[in-house]
Each structure stands twice: as structure tokens, then as C-alpha cells.
Amino acid sequence: xxxxxxxxxxxxxxxxxxxxxxxxxVAARLSRFFEQHGITGxxxxxxxxxxDAGEAGLTLTxxxxxxxxxxxxxxxxxxxxxxxxxxxxxxxxxxxxVVRAQMSVSGRxxxxxxxxxxxxxxxxxxxxxxxxxxELIAQLCETLHRSVDEGRPAEADLLAGRLRAPRRGGxxxx
Length: 174
Known about the structure:
mainly alpha, about 170 residues, three-stranded antiparallel β-sheet, about 65% helix, Arc Repressor Mutant, subunit A
């Protein structure tokens, strides 16, 4: 079935397609913004989480959870921020296996410099939407997120062949 036909006949596919297109358009603009500041979006995410955490910082495990990525992904990003002088890592004195990341003065200055411009860019990118449309998008994305999180067992069953995928048109006739 062609993409064009799927976009016409399948509301779920159409919603996903348009959500993905919007995300990629915004992500491309944000990527250029981060490049202009000499960091990546992932690095900015780490700085944001550390700014939210305050002086105590975060363990790498907690940082990964907040970023919704694996610890392995976080380690590489933290390595690069540490090399640039934007954060420091310290081992926990009570348990040397635990590593805590804390924002350095340089990292805090970079974050505080970037955050107003970041907010301005997000506002600009969303400028074509009314306040009500922005709220609706936020609500719908949250609903989708919860739905997908709660649907994980059904998804696993579908992949394992224990459930049947809906028939064409989204309706299962059994």
C-alpha cells in the first residue's frame, strides 16, 4: 500500500506521519541552534537536567532516567561535556561505584546564556499556533505517551504473535 493511500485511509498512520514530520522540522531548527552554541541537543539536555537538580547534581543513572536514554548513551555525552569543562564527575564517597555529575561554573554560564534564546526559539517555532492549539498538542502528546506506555504488554503480545494486528481500515472483524 502506498504512503499516499495510507495517509488517506489510516488515521493512525496519518497522525504518526504528521507528528514525525513536525518533530523533524523542529529538531532540525534546534540542532542548528545548538551547533551555533558549540554543543549538541543531547548535551543541552544534560545541562538542563543538571540545572534542575541544583548543586547536588545527579547520579549518571538518575540522569539517564530523566533523559529517557541508556546509561551508555549518557556516558558519552557526559564525557564530552566534562572534556569541554561544562561539568565534573565525582565518585560517591559512600559507594565508589556511584558516579555523580555536577554542572561546573562554565556549564552553568553556558546554560544560563542559552536558555532565554532557547525559549525564544521554541516560542518562535510554535508562533503559528494559538495558545489553545499549543495546549491541545501538549495534551494529545501526553495522552499518546501514556497510551503507548500502558500498551507495552499488548505490543509485546502482538510482536510475539499472541494478538492479531487489526485488519485493513483499523477494524478487526473477529
